[in-house]
What we know:
Layout: H1 18-45, H2 49-95, H3 97-110, H4 115-137, H5 149-173, H6 179-202, H7 206-234
Helix pairs in contact: 1-2, 1-5, 1-6, 1-7, 2-3, 2-4, 2-5, 3-4, 5-6, 6-7
Amino acid sequence: MINTFTSPHQEHHKSQRAPWLRAAVLGVNDGIVSTSGLMLGVLGASANHTAILTAGIAGLVAGAISMGMGEYVSVSSQKDSEKADIDIERRSIASNPTEELAELAWIYEQRGVEKSLALKVATQLHANDAVNAHARDELNINQRILANPRQAAVASTIAFSVGAALPIIATLLANNSNGAHVIIAFSMVGLAISGSIGAYIGGGNKLRAALRVLIGGAAAMTITYAIGLSIGTFL
C-alpha cells in the first residue's frame, strides 16, 4: 500500500526556501551596503574614528529593527491577503457550488486535460477538499505554507545585523589612513560571499548572483562616499 503522505519519487526542490531566503539575502546585503555606505559617508566628511564607528553601530541597530519590523508588517499583509482570498472562495463554494465546480473543471481544461476527465477530477477534488483545490489551482495559494511573518522578521533582523557587523569590524581593524579601503574591502568580500551563498541555497548561478550584489554595492558606496567628501569640503 502506497503511503498517501509521501511521494513515490521525491526530489529536493529549492523554491520552498523562497520566503526566508529572500528575507535573509536581502537582510545581509542591505546590512552591508547601508551600513558601509553610512560609515563611508561619515568618513568622507570627517576622519573622526569615533564618529565613524558610532554611525556604524547606530546604523546596525536602527537598520536591524527597521528590517525586522518592515518584513513582519509586509509579510503579515501578504498573509492577510491570502487568507482573505481563501475566505472569499470558501463563501463562494458554499453559495455557488455548481458554478465553482465548473470553474475548477475549466481551469484543468485550460491546462490540457480532456473535458470529461477535467470534470471528473474537479468533482473528486470538490468532494475531498473544495477550498484547498480552489486555493491551490485558482489562486496559486498553498494553505500549508502560507506566508510566515515571524520567520521573515527574524531572518531579516539577524541577517541585517550580520551584514552590518562587517564594516564595523573593518573600522575597528583600520586606522585613519586606510579606513575607507578596509571598509570597502570587507564590504565587497561580504557581498560576494552573501550573493554566492544565496545562489547556492536557492539553486542559482553563484557568479551571476555575486556580480549583481557587487555592482549594486559598489555603486552605493561610491555615491555615499562622494557625498560625504562634498559635504566635508564645504563645511
